[in-house]
Amino acid sequence: MNHKIVLFTLGRVVLIEAALLVLPMAVSLLYGERCALSFALTIVLAVVTGSLLCLLCRGGRGTSSIKDGFMIVALAWIVLSAIGALPFVFSKEIPSYIDAFFETVSGFTTTGASVVQNVEALPMSLLYWRSFTHWLGGMGVLVFLLAIIPIMKGKSTLVHLLRAESPGPSVEKLAPKLHQTAKILYGIYIALTMVQILILLAGGMPLFDSVTTSFATAGTGGFAIKNDSMAGYSPFQQGVVTVFMALFGV
Fold it and tell me: What is the pLDDT of residue 1?
């Protein structure tokens, strides 16, 4: 196993998660919530951790194997969830790290199980982050990363990553390059998400609710921002979510 390639790739993954955490921090600042400090601290820790991994393991030589791909995917899900749980703990909205870790794993894996009994009591930024983890996990976190940045230059590494992330026995390409295939898939994913947001807005749902509901729908996980889930919305809005759940689940 090429340990340097594995750790270097994990470092890039952690750095990209730090960048993604800027979005819920911005939501926190927009709504004047104290959670902004929790997200800022998490971002700093992620940047330090990711930078150290990249610096210490830079220049890894040799080719990667399918074992490296599976190891990167397995560790990436764990590391992303471990860091993604920190805002819940730092803000003391979920004081227990084990509970916060469970909540974040449930989000990234689009499981939808939650330890939060009163969802509506959570700050808007944490509600956004919960739903955003669903959206990121819906297509696979590493597929998203491959779509926005070529993590590794080696073609074999990209193949092994997609093969390890894919639920099927084989990986089919929509374009000559895997990076292009990831972009096409996420282009469709983003387009469907935007369409749902616009339809929900047209149906009278507030912007924040439309965005978070669309994130959860895209991941087909079920995290909601209301205690009664979709029961608190109109039949039209419920119907839109049902239709898009079917589309994303195909």
Answer: 64
Pick left, alpha or beta for residue 224 (phi over 0 → left; psi -120 to 50 → alpha; otherwise beta): beta
Cα distances (angstroms) measured from residue 16 to each of 71, 179, 190, 244, 245: 18, 16, 18, 28, 27
Residue percentage of the chain with pLDDT more than 90: 49
pLDDT in tens, 98-119: 999 999 999 998 888 899 989 9
* Confidence check: pLDDT of 174 > 70: no
Residue 178: both structure tokens together? 């895997």
Distances (CA, A) of 163 to 68, 167, 172: 11, 8, 9
How far is Cα 160 from Cα 73, in angstroms, rounded to an integer? 10
CA distance 212 to 207: 9
Contact 115, 98 (CB under 8 A): no
Q: CB–CB of 66/160 below 8 Å?
A: yes
Q: What's the pLDDT band for 143 if we cut at 50, 70, 90? A: low
Residue whose token pair is 């039949």? 235
Cα–Cα–Cα angle for 47, 105, 149, nearest 5°?
45
Q: Which two tokens stand for residue 170?
A: 């084989």
For Cα atoms 84, 88, 91, give the angle at the middle one, nearest 5 degrees: 130
Q: Write down the residue that tokens 């912007």 correspond to.
A: 207
When pLDDT is cut at 50, 70 and 90, the band that residue 65 belongs to is low
Decide: 68 and 1 in contact? Cβ < 8 Å: yes
- Distance (Å, whole) CA 141 – CA 234: 32
